[in-house]
């Protein structure tokens, strides 16, 4: 088996889905967390000059989305067919757009609009996204325990990460209130928590270092 080294900051934003994919797949990896004060030196060692970056078998793979898609495909978390893989990608695309909205609230493009963006996120964007996810679930896997098929895939992991680790940064609760109005999505969230490998990772992963909650 390949020996994986994942380089990222001691935060979760762009690196945590990759870590969760490794955890769910039960694949060992070296979780190298680079403090910001060491980044200028470490940057010279990175193929892309940025992180996250995954090193294995002489390969240097940059870009978080490329990394977690690759790892999921390699280790059975990307569906059983090309069609299932495309459906998983569809869910990931919805969630990645949702994550962009979260980032926009935290890092607004201009000063003085943060609270307006937060209000719009909580009262419009969050609901529109969960409705879109419900429609996808109803179309692809009605009554299912996961978005695609009968076991956890990358789609569920990306969904879980964003609602578990990020939404509370711009909303007032740990799990966004909008999920309580969507029991089918809430079930997927709870099924992710019930995954033994993911549960172990959540219990054992390092706490966020002060100053890295949004990195």
The poorly predicted ranges are: none
Question: What is the percent of helical residues?
Answer: 40-55%
Radius of gyration: 17 Å
Major sheet, described briefly? Answer: 4 strands, mixed
Distance between the ends: 30 Å
Q: Supply the number of helical segments.
A: 9
Shape: globular
Strand content: 5-15%
Strand segment count = 4
SSE sequence, one letter per element: EHEHEEHHHHHHH
Which strand order does the major sheet show?
Answer: 2-1-3-4
Secondary-structure-derived class: alpha+beta
Mean pLDDT: 89
Written overview of the protein:
Helix content is 53%, strand content 8%. It is α+β, with helices and mostly antiparallel strands and 215 residues long. It has a four-stranded mixed sheet with strand order 2-1-3-4, covered by helices on one side. The longest helix has 27 residues, at 114-140. The chain is globular. The relative contact order is 0.15.
Key traits:
215 residues, globular
Summarize the structure.
With 215 residues, this protein is α+β, with helices and mostly antiparallel strands. Helix content is 53%, strand content 8%.
Secondary structure elements and pairings:
Blueprint: E1 4-8, H1 16-25, E2 29-33, H2 39-42, E3 53-56, E4 59-62, H3 64-74, H4 82-106, H5 114-140, H6 154-166, H7 177-180, H8 183-194, H9 196-204
Parallel strand pairs: 1-2
Antiparallel strand pairs: 1-3, 3-4
């Amino acid at each position: 088996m390949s020996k994986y080294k994942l380089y990222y900051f001691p935060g979760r934003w762009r690196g945590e889905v990759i870590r969760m994919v490794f955890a769910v797949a039960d694949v060992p990896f070296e979780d190298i967390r680079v403090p910001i004060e060491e980044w200028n030196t470490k940057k010279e060692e990175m193929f892309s000059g940025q992180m996250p970056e995954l090193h294995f078998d002489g390969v240097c793979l940059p870009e978080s989305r490329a990394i977690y898609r690759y790892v999921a495909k390699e280790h059975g978390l990307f569906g059983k067919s090309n069609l299932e893989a495309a459906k998983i990608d569809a869910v990931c695309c919805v969630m990645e757009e949702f994550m962009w909205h979260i980032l926009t609230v935290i890092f607004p493009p201009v000063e003085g609009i943060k609270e307006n963006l937060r209000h719009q996120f909580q009262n419009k964007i969050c609901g529109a996204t969960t409705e879109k996810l419900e429609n996808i679930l109803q179309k692809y896997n009605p009554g299912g325990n996961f978005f695609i098929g009968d076991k956890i895939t990358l789609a569920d992991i990306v969904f879980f990460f964003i609602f578990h680790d990020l939404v509370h940064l711009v909303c007032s609760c740990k799990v966004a209130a909008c999920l309580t109005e969507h029991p089918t999505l809430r079930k997927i969230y709870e099924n992710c928590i019930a995954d033994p490998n993911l549960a172990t990772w959540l219990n054992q992963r390092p706490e966020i270092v002060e100053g890295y909650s949004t990195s």
